[in-house]
Amino acid sequence: MNSDSCVPSSFSPEEADQLFDQMPYFAATRLREITQMAQPYIEATDGYARAVSRVSNLLGHNQPADTQDRVIRDLLADVFDFLYEARDLIVGGKLAVAYPLARRAYESLSLLHLCTVDVTWAQKWEDGKKIGNADVRKQLGRHPLGETELELKELYDFFCTATHPNRELVAARRLGEGNEFVLGLIGMPDLFFVVDYCSKHLELWHWLTATVTYFYRDLISTQDSTYFAGYDEITQSGKDVKRWLVESLPQLHREALEIDANHGLRLAKPAPNSLQRGNEGQILINSEAQFVAASLKAKHGIK
Fold first, then answer.
1. Alpha-carbon dihedral of residues 252, 257, 260, 262, nearest 10 degrees?
2. What is the CA radius of gyration of the chain?
3. Smallest Cα–Cα separation from 240: which of 271, 283, 211, 288?
4. Does residue 51 contact residue 234 with C-beta atoms inside 8 Å?
5. Domain contains 6
6. Which domain holds residue 81?
7. SS3 assignment for 79-141
8. Alpha-carbon span 91 to 294, nearest angstrom
9. What is the pLDDT of residues 145-199, one digit of tens each?
10. In the chain, how many domains are there?
11. What span, in angstroms and rounded, lies between the C-alpha atoms of 243 and 267?
12. What does pTM read for this prediction?
């Protein structure tokens, strides 16, 4: 590659084949680099995934009580699978490929939340009714254990925007303008987007774990009471990691803008929702998370 000049060197078919053969090496390098930087995020998402997996296994030893229970189990597994697969893509730097998985997880997760707090919607979905995310957001916005419609819409808009090709998120790779090969992960992904995506992905894991814990709290209490102490530890750790991720975004945002300016690019990195809301590291689903915590503390004496 000729990175010192915008004038490409002479094309070589042999070099093109060699670069293609090195693509797995480039991917392994990026995975190693990002994994080292994102270890707290990896540990936090592992904690959430382990908790949900434990509840899922508990459910496997108990028959569904009714239609709502059956629906929750199916949606739980659906969300888990998409969130679980998305992380390898995120820490591998393959953000564009991971966005559709996260959007699917978000839509299933918001529907799961609605079905846990309103049995009528679980029945409608089981009966085959098409339930759009706009309807889900509206219903959750009205429910005392839901979320504000505005916050849900912001998260939905992010995943929708990221799922479709747009100039803000499709990388300016400068092919032929100093870069002679830009496919795969030969270039380091923009850490601003990596960290922002880790933050949002972690938020979805927290949402799933809190929702599942709330809905199955009675069953867990009778058959796996030690779960609750671990749940409290996992959620606190998740909040700490979320705060760490969010607090790193302003600096990464400034660095990304400087890099664009130095390369003569006119694309401005949009500040993510987490920046617009401040640096508290606050996780979505506050109402439900607080309700779960209060419920568990009152019922099981958790401090």
1. -100
2. 22
3. 283
4. yes
5. no
6. 13-300
7. HHHHHHHHHHHHHCCCHHHHHHHHHHHHHHHHHHHHHHHCHHHHHHHHCCCCCCHHHHHHHHH
8. 34
9. 666 777 777 777 777 776 666 666 677 777 888 788 888 877 777 788 888 889 9
10. 1
11. 27
12. 0.79
